[in-house]
Structure formats: C-alpha cells, structure tokens
Design goal:
Elements lengths: L9 H15 L6 H8 L3 H8 L2 H23 L6 H9 L9 H14 L3 H27 L9 H21 L5 H18 L16 H4 L1
C-alpha cells in the first residue's frame, strides 16, 4: 500500500517557523503560534517534529543545508574570484537589516550554544561556510588578487569573524543599515589584504586591487 502524500510539506512549516522566530524571538516562540502562522493545527506540528526542541533542531539543519546553495547563488554574476569571495562572505545579511530580526537571531544563537545537538549543527554550518570562503580566498590568491602572505584559511577566518562581529555590534547599537555596514567592513578587510600585493609587485593606487572592477 502506497504512503499517503503529505498535504503540507515540511519546508512550508519550517519557513513559517523561521519567519516567526526572527519576528518574536525564542522566548515567545511556541508551537501554537507557529501553527497559526502556517495555517495548520498544533497537532500537525507535533506529529511532524515532536516538540519545540525538535523543531529548533530542524531549523538548524535547514540553515546548514542552505549554506552551500546560498553561497553559490550569491556569486552569480561576479566576474572575478575576489568578487565571488566578497559575495560569499556577505551571504545571509539581506534578511537581517532589522534590529529586531538580528536581536532575535542572536537570542536563538544563545540557545544553540546551550544545547549539544544544536551546537554541533552550528559548528557544522560555520565550518561549511569557512570551507567555502577558504576555497574562494585560494582562488583569489591564485588569480593574483590577494597576496600570498596569508594562507587562504586565515583569510576565511578573518572574514567570518568580521561578519559575525559586525552582526553582534550592530545588534547592540543598530545605527544605519546592517547590510551597508557589513559591506563596508568586508571591503576594508579585502582592500587591506589586496594592498599587501604592493610589496611584491609594481606600485598601485590605493585600493586598486579591490576596486569595483574586481568586486563586481
């Protein structure tokens, strides 16, 4: 006997849960409120995920699984390795240009750090992100857009730390646009790294190794 197809797929439920979590934060987050947002019964959510904790784990897995396709999509249209590295580093910021959204995401991060299974997924996601940045940094080095003084893995860690630090500090003092600040901070880092090429090559005008031609 064939299994009955699901009328409502998990992605719809998880998307509703993710949107609600960013909107109201983990403290006010309940299965009942998720059910209302998704237009289903709380019993449906319990049947699919079992508990609020299991739903959080499913959301973390969804985030991990979204990293590789998200980073690949972010690079579309980039003409140089350095531009692809920049686009990858900034992936995920567009949905956070709201103090409330960012604060609620960080509140969720605090919960992740207190649970072994959620912390494992968080580590898996950040390692995946760092792996992509490392590969892209290596390509930029090979293309002569970044110097050989620093290993690609270190550049990846610097960019990841810059982005996460910007996210946290902006959340505490949300002045201006988070997206604009993140872009500016990443550009400063990449310009500084590109400027190291001057020691090994002919003189360049400041920032020429990381100008709009390379970052487009």
């Amino acid at each position: 006997m064939m299994a009955r197809p699901r009328v409502i797929d998990d992605e719809r439920l998880l998307a509703a849960a993710q949107g609600l979590l960013y909107e109201i934060g983990p403290a006010a987050f309940t299965l009942q409120r998720v059910a209302e947002r998704a237009g289903v019964s709380a019993a449906t959510l319990i049947k699919r995920f079992g508990s609020k904790q299991q739903l959080f784990l499913a959301l973390n897995r969804r985030w991990v699984d979204s990293i590789t396709p998200g980073i690949e999509a972010a690079q579309a249209g980039c003409r140089t390795p350095l531009a692809r590295l920049r686009a990858a580093a900034l992936w995920g910021f567009d949905d956070l240009d709201s103090p409330a959204n960012t604060a609620n995401q960080l509140a969720t991060l605090a919960l992740d750090l207190q649970d072994d299974r959620m912390r494992e997924l968080l580590a898996e996601g950040w390692l995946t992100f760092e792996h992509h940045l490392t590969e892209l940094a290596a390509a930029a080095i090979e293309a002569g857009e970044l110097g050989h003084d620093r290993p690609a893995a270190q550049i990846a860690r610097i960019l990841l730390a810059t982005c996460e630090g910007t996210r946290i500090t902006w959340c505490v003092r949300p002045v201006g646009s988070l997206v604009a600040r993140a872009r500016a901070d990443v550009d400063v880092v990449l310009t500084a790294l590109a400027a190291e090429l001057e020691r090994d090559g002919p003189a360049r005008t400041p920032g020429s190794a990381c100008d709009k031609r390379h970052l487009a």
